[in-house]
Design goal:
The chain has 8 helices and 5 strands. It has 252 residues and is an alpha/beta fold. The protein has one domain: Rossmann fold. It has a 5-stranded parallel β-sheet with strand order 2-3-1-4-5, with helices on both faces. α1 packs across α8 and α3 runs parallel beside α5. It is globular and about 45 Å long.
Length: 252
C-alpha cells in the first residue's frame, strides 16, 4: 500500500526509485513545497496519479512541487513520463518528438508508438512501483492518446480505445490532474522557453491545441470522480496549494 516511511529517516535522504539506466525514471529537482504536510494519506496499495494538459501548461513544474510535498510527508514517490520512462520508451520518445524522420509520421504510426512506450512503462515501472506501495506521478498517460491522437488527429475513437486498453490493461489512473490553459497562452509559453527548440508535438497549429483543450475538458466532464481540473494560468504557488488540497482530500 502507499505507506509512509519511518519517521527516523534523515531529511537528506531521498526516496529510492526504480533504477533505470540514464535515470529514465527521473528524480525531481528541489522545488518550493507546501507549508503543511499531508494528513491521513493511506491506501491499501500504491497510487497512480497522472498529469495532463496541452503543451506549455506547466505540468512538469507542478509534478516537481507535488512530488516534493509528498516526499516531505514521508511517502515513496516515483516520477516518470510519457513517452519515455524506460530505456525503450526513451528511444521511442526521441523518434516521436525529435527525429527528423518524424516529420513523415502518419497519425496511425504515432498512435501505435505512443502505445508501445506506454505498454513498456506500465509493466517495467508503474505496476512494480504500485505493488511496492509507492505513489507514481506520471507526466501524461493514456488520456493524452485519447485527446491528441483521437481528438487532435481525428482517429476514430474505437481503435484508440482498443489500443489504449491493450497497452495498459486494467492499470488506470486513480487521479488525473489537468492543467487547463487556453491554446494561445500555451503556445506563447513555448515560444519563450529559454532551454529547448519546440519539438514536433509542440509545433502544431493553434487549431490543433484548441481541439486538444476541448478534448481534455470533455473527458473531465464525463469522469469528474477521476479528474481534477486546475486553471493553469494562475500563479504557480496558488496552483500547488489547490492541488495539495484536492489530492489530500481525495487520497484520504
Amino acid at each position: 500500500m502507499a505507506q509512509k516511511k519511518k519517521t527516523t529517516r534523515k531529511t537528506s535522504e531521498k526516496p529510492k526509485t526504480n533504477s533505470v539506466k540514464k535515470s529514465t525514471v527521473r528524480k525531481t529537482k528541489s522545488a518550493p513545497r507546501s507549508h503543511r504536510k499531508a494528513k491521513g494519506m493511506r491506501r491499501d496499495r500504491g497510487l497512480l496519479i497522472s498529469f495532463e494538459g496541452s503543451e506549455g501548461s506547466g505540468k512538469t513544474t507542478q509534478i516537481s512541487r507535488i512530488s516534493a510535498w509528498m516526499e516531505d510527508s514521508g511517502y515513496d514517490v516515483v516520477v516518470t513520463r510519457e513517452p519515455g520512462g524506460t530505456e525503450i520508451g526513451e528511444e521511442i520518445r526521441h523518434l516521436l518528438k525529435h527525429s527528423a524522420q518524424g516529420a513523415r509520421m502518419t497519425p496511425e504510426a504515432e498512435l501505435l508508438l505512443f502505445a508501445a512506450s506506454r505498454a513498456q512503462l506500465v509493466r517495467e515501472v508503474i505496476v512494480p512501483s504500485m505493488d511496492a506501495g509507492k505513489i507514481v506521478l506520471c507526466d501524461r498517460y493514456l488520456d493524452s492518446t485519447t485527446v491528441y491522437q483521437g481528438v487532435g488527429r481525428q482517429i476514430s475513437a474505437e481503435p484508440v480505445h482498443i489500443i489504449n486498453t491493450f497497452a495498459v490493461g486494467d492499470v488506470m489512473p486513480d487521479i488525473t490532474v489537468i492543467l487547463d490553459i487556453p491554446a494561445e497562452i500555451g503556445l506563447e509559453r513555448i515560444r519563450h522557453r529559454a532551454t529547448d527548440i519546440p519539438d514536433r508535438m509542440e509545433s502544431e497549429t493553434i487549431d490543433f491545441y484548441r481541439k486538444v483543450r476541448e478534448g481534455y475538458l470533455l473527458l473531465a466532464n464525463a469522469l469528474p470522480e477521476r479528474f481534477i481540473v486546475v486553471d493553469g494560468t494562475r500563479p504557480r504557488h496558488d496552483i500547488e496549494e489547490q492541488l495539495c488540497d484536492e489530492l489530500e482530500r481525495r487520497i484520504d
